[in-house]
Amino acid sequence: MKIIVLLVFVLLSSLTLAAQQPACPDATGTYYMSHDGWKRMDQITMSGSGAKHVGKMFVPGLTPQMVWTFPGPEAPVKIEDRRPTFCVRELAPLADLPGHSVRDVAIVRFDKKKDHRELQTTFGGSAFTYKVGFGKEKLVQTTGSRSEDGSFFTITATENVAPGEYLFTFGYGGTSGYDFSVK
Length: 183
Prior knowledge:
By secondary structure, the protein is mainly β. It has one helix at residues 2-20, and strands spanning 29-34, 37-40, 43-45, 48-52, 65-71, 78-79, 85-89, 105-109, 111-112, 116-120, 122-123, 131-132, 139-140, 142-146, 152-157, 164-170, 176-182.
């Protein structure tokens, strides 16, 4: 009897979740879940690059940091949900392309400036601790899953995301992606 009650509860829970989140749109693209359903996001590419903390170059063993610059002080997409959900639908040949899968997604926080945003792509203070990629304090922890037919996948933040500017990108290059603000 307990097993039947448990199965009914699980079935009702999954139906409720499915009703709350509509299926990913049929058109290829990257989307975020809003109160009104899925909304398409536009891709953004870095507009420049440079170095931060250049003075470190003059101290033996210390290293400057590389940053990518993105245009505008804020993203056009404003997300109110503190645990945003995204959907990526790709053409079939690209769905399993290495570096562009559910496992390669990174959501990283920008450093907001007066007229642009910066993404620091290296970290570590010395030649011994210098690494390419994003620092853990800038990354949003996520969970994702691919649809049964393999045509799309969804990504959801597993923790509340602090207000700020973010980039949804693939891999750790961070030269392009989909920008959004969490309010």
